[in-house]
Amino acid sequence: MTAEQTTGAPQAVDLVTLTIDDQQVSVPKGTLVIRAAEMIGVVIPRFCDHPLLDPVGACRQCLVEVEGQRKPLASCTTTVTEGMVVRTQQTSPAADKAQHGIMEFLLINHPLDCPVCDKGGECPLQNQAMAHGRTETRFTDVKRT
């Protein structure tokens, strides 16, 4: 039986207040940064994240800058803390550069013209690269297809 069932009153939720891209938000304790951002309409790119699955952090596309941390963190695996200050690719050159580097890395063996790919133009990687203007790469060797 829950506290609500025994007393009839709703159970209080512990809230944590943080700042994302200069917007203050209060979310339940244990919320992931990527979910807190969604709550205020801030879109953070991602591939491996799904709200019904446990966080993995494999694609690294959701990197954000967190004040006090030495390097960008994956927002899909980072839990919010009281007073946390987060900057996404929209307001942080460091987060934007990190995401750009990860996209560039992902595109090494994935040509965006997709002539030989099973997806045939219906590719989440291609869509994300195009949506965020990250179709250029420094790696010009022959791609494995």
Automatic annotation (TrEMBL):
Database matches in SMART domains: NADH-G_4Fe-4S_3
Any GO BP: ATP synthesis coupled electron transport
InterPro entries, per database record: 2Fe-2S_ferredoxin-like_sf, 2Fe-2S_ferredoxin-type, NADH_UbQ_OxRdtase_75kDa_su_CS, NADH_UbQ_OxRdtase_Gsu_4Fe4S-bd, Prok_molybdopt-oxidoreductase
Ranges of residues in domain 4Fe-4S His(Cys)3-ligated-type: 94-133
Keywords, alphabetical: 4Fe-4S, Iron, Iron-sulfur, Metal-binding, NAD, Translocase
SUPFAM superfamilies: 2Fe-2S ferredoxin-like
Record domain 2Fe-2S ferredoxin-type: where: 14-92
GO cellular component, one term: membrane
Superkingdom of the organism of origin: Bacteria
Known cofactor(s): [2Fe-2S] cluster; [4Fe-4S] cluster
CDD domains: fer2
Molecular function via GO: 4 iron, 4 sulfur cluster binding; metal ion binding; NADH dehydrogenase (ubiquinone) activity; NADH dehydrogenase activity
Family: Belongs to the complex I 75 kDa subunit family.
Listed name of the protein: NADH-quinone oxidoreductase subunit G
